[in-house]
Amino acid sequence: MNLARRTMNNPAFALVYERAWRPAAFFLATGRTMRADRHDAARTLRLRPGSRVLDVACGPGNITGYLSTRLAGDGYAVGIDFSGPMLRQARVDNSGPRVGYVRGDARRLPFADGTFDAVCCFGALYLIPDPLVAAREMIRVLAPGGRIAISTSHRDDTWFGAVSTLVGGAGGLRVFDIDTFPDLFERSGLTEIRQEVHGLLQYVSATRPAR
Ligand SMILES: C[S@@+](CC[C@H](N)C(=O)[O-])C[C@H]1O[C@@H](n2cnc3c(N)ncnc32)[C@H](O)[C@@H]1O
After folding, report:
1. For the purposes of burial, counting CB atoms within 10 Å of the CB of 93, is it exposed (0-12), middle (13-18) or buried (19 or more)?
2. Domains of the chain by start residue, with CATH
3. Is the CB of 59 under 6 A from ligand 1?
4. What would the pLDDT profile of 122-146 be if each residue is shown by its tens digit?
5. The pTM is what?
6. Contact yes or no for 185/193 (Cβ under 8 A)
């Protein structure tokens, strides 16, 4: 197991992730606050009160819990992650009437095709050993007319990007070409593909066309 995976399975890291690590590290990497990321996630996913939402590699539920507060009626958010400590923290910090957490592997999502109206994966594809397998799984479980949104790394040619790639690579983090996810989404038949770059992260969203 590489350093990044060991870190995600450490209870102490799970405890400080939402409180300190996520706000500081992501602000340094992207210039964005967690509040902005959460707000944009709900907007990009076009959540409606009754949406069924899947947050892949949800960590301690820092995005999942927020998305669930935007739902009503039959709306429900599920967070899935393989780290037991992260999920225990999610249940402590981000529980609610419309959210639940499941332990599982992003590369084999335990859901039927087309189960969710919105599927997201933020700040995690660079940690997953077969990230394109995980991305295809996300598309598989997305319902026709549903929305997908990811944020992940991209190759950045600045000195900061080069240093981050080196340091991250040593710890087991992957860096993607800027075209990798837009191309995958297009080949998978998704439409309305939008990509934004904020510092070291790319944010990509798309729609699965209604049948
Ligand atoms: C940095 S956290 C991201 C948490 C949250 N999505 C966010 O935006 O802050 C990355 C998470 O990915 C999870 N993860 C890594 N590989 C995974 C896999 N194959 N299946 C499920 N979760 C995985 C880790 O356990 C960790 O909780």
Report:
1. middle
2. 3-207 (3.40.50.150)
3. yes
4. 999 999 999 999 999 999 999 999 9
5. 0.95
6. yes
